[in-house]
Design goal:
The chain has 11 helices and 4 strands; from the N terminus they run H-H-E-H-E-E-E-H-H-H-H-H-H-H-H. It is mainly α. The longest helix has about 35 residues. The two termini are about 15 Å apart.
Amino acid sequence: MQYVGLDKQIRKNNFNSTLLLIAFPALLLGMLYAILFFTSDEHGEDPNVLFLQTMPVVAAATGIWFLIAWAGHAAFIRMATGSKPLERTQNKRVYNLVENLCISQGMGTPKIYVIEDDSLNAFASGIDKKSYAVSLSRGIINKLDDEELEGVIAHELTHIKNRDVRVLIISIIFVGIFAFLAELAFRSLRFAGSGKKSKDSKGSGAIILIAIVVTAVAYFISILLRFGISRKREYLADAGAADMTKKPYALANALRKVSNDPAIEAVESRDVAQLFFDNPKPSTHKSASWDNIFATHPPVEKRIELLEQFV
């Protein structure tokens, strides 16, 4: 894959960020209207009136959720991955590699974190210069040589320059909202089914069942929106890293090594796992769910094949 150019990719990711900020709330409001439309007959009320009355509350609640997640995303990701700051005195080699690449690209040096895990993986995160960070597992630091580690770091720095991380974090936040609503609807049905049987409870059960179907469909669509922009970014980051280091073979070698042991034990969230350099296949990951059939990363073999075209 030919590298499309940094400026063009930044513009595209800015557009995708705006599109996501519009698409996800629109989907959420569409879900709300569908639930009110299918359940309004139970009470004989106009779904349009109910929608106009409910919409400000839902919009405000979603906005508060988003702002909290936006402000605290860095802490949430560190908690989910177990990453901790890597001090310069602990590993000058990593700092030298990161700083040299940043100087060559005219970009600020992101924060550097380490995950105390012997597996091989890495990820970039952050939404602005203050929060940009590169996290590396202890395994990837110890098991890759300088050229290979440089390639991985360049890949993550390209994600930061391309603002892929911002798009991903926005999508993770919104998909989390739909996942929460779907889970809430499912738990409500279980609770309703455990009570006394009556006409009212049957009516409530039907309403909750409709809510489950609608939220499940909305959750599925939100996942499709997320994965619609997910895979290509990895190819572009690989190409950007090859252009940055002029050593595509080193990144290809790193991919081969990482693919043999990419699973970070502390990471149970599939949403967070999609940030990684290589997202382990569902069959090799201890947490599994129905949406694991969607791969967030292209096959390693294909990524290596494309990198070898640069040689």
